[in-house]
Structures are given as C-alpha cells and as structure tokens.
Amino acid sequence: MTRPKIFGIAGWKNSGKTGLAVRLVTELVARGYRVSTIKHAHHDFDIDKIGADSYRHRQAGAHEVTIVSGTRYAIMHELRGAAEPSFEEILARLAPCDLVLIEGYKREPIPKIEARRLEAANRTPLAPEDPHIAAIAADHPVTDTALPVFDLDDTKTIADFVVSVTGLEMKED
C-alpha cells in the first residue's frame, strides 16, 4: 500500500484550525478526493458517553472497544499507561485514502499551513521556527513573511494550494 499524501494545519488554540480543516475536507471531498483526518488532542477526551455500553466495556478494562453499526464503526484504544502512539503508528492504522489532513501535531515534519486568528490564545508565529510550514492562512494582514498568505476563509484557494503542494492527482470535474 502506498502512503497517502499528508498535509497539516498547525496553529495555537482558537487560531481557526478546526474550521479550516472542516472546510478543506468538505471542499476536497466535493472535488472527488477520499480524505481522512487525524486530530491531535493535548488533553484527555472521550467519544462515548458515561453509562453507554462502550463506556462500560472500557471501564471494565478492555484494551480496544469497537462500536459497529450499519453506518459507521469506531475503535477506541485505551493506552492504559502505555506511551502515546507515534504519528506514523496512527497513520498506519488508517484505511487507504488520497489525503490525510492533520490537525495539530504542529511539531511533525510534514507540509502544513499555519492558521492565525486575532482571537487566538497565543499569537506567536510558528512559521519562522518551522521549515515545514508552506503557507499562512490568517484573518488579518500578514506582512512579515515570504510564505504565501491566504485569507483564512478562502477555502477554494487553500484547497488548490494543498492539491499542488501534496502532488495530489487532479480529479476530473
């Protein structure tokens, strides 16, 4: 199996990463690409509700809990004290696709766009310190860079950039 194309969205909390990721997935899927996503969380999270059967299975000590229905399935893997899996280990678990869009993992050496918003919790630019940032998407003017700068809401242009940078094959309209 060939490794899928990978492109990341990096930025501080409240910088617009999730909104941009959602818009890019919508746009790229509409263009005919099969897109998967990986979101890195810096905190504990749950995808099942307290009291649900899957929650009870995890609480009982199950290593992995898989929930399956006619429309989707999810596999929850409890680390139970083990180290967080590497980026490559997570990537290897995904089904084949055209593109994996990464939200977070700002330190991974992958091509990425930096999201910036005036309302971000931290406005320290990432680009000067990260040679893997290929462009900036912002809700305000950015003049202190030689990188391409896009309006954070210009999804079509940013999607064109992602297709170009990753070398995705153009889909027929």
Radius of gyration: 18 Å
- The quaternary state of the protein chains shown equals single chain
CATH topology: Rossmann fold
The average pLDDT is 90
Q: Helix content range of the residues, please?
A: 10-25%
User: What best-fitting shape do the alpha-carbon axes yield?
Assistant: globular
Element pattern in H and E: EHEHEEHEEEEH
Q: How many strands in all?
A: 8
What name goes with the CATH superfamily?
A: P-loop containing nucleotide triphosphate hydrolases
Query: What summary fits the major beta sheet?
Result: 6 strands, parallel
Q: What CATH first level would be assigned?
A: Alpha Beta
Counting DSSP H or I runs of 4 or more residues, the number of helices is 4
Pfam family, one: MobB
GO molecular function, one term: GTP binding
InterPro entries: MGD_biosynthesis_adapter, MobB_dom, P-loop_NTPase
GO biological process, one term: Mo-molybdopterin cofactor biosynthetic process
Give your account of this protein's structure.
With 173 residues, the chain is of the alpha/beta class. It has a single domain, classed as P-loop containing nucleotide triphosphate hydrolases (Rossmann fold, 3-Layer(aba) Sandwich). It has four helices and eight strands; from the N terminus they run βαβαββαββββα. The strands form two sheets. Strands 2-5-1-6-7-8 form a six-stranded parallel β-sheet, covered by helices on one side. Strands 3-4 form a two-stranded antiparallel ribbon. Helix 1 (17-30) crosses helix 4 (155-166). The longest helix is centred in the first third of the chain and has 14 residues, at 17-30. The chain is globular and about 55 Å long. It starts with a strand and ends in a 7-residue tail after the last helix. InterPro entries: MGD_biosynthesis_adapter, MobB_dom, P-loop_NTPase. It holds the Pfam family MobB. This is Molybdopterin-guanine dinucleotide biosynthesis protein B. Residues 6-139 form the Molybdopterin-guanine dinucleotide biosynthesis protein B (MobB) domain.
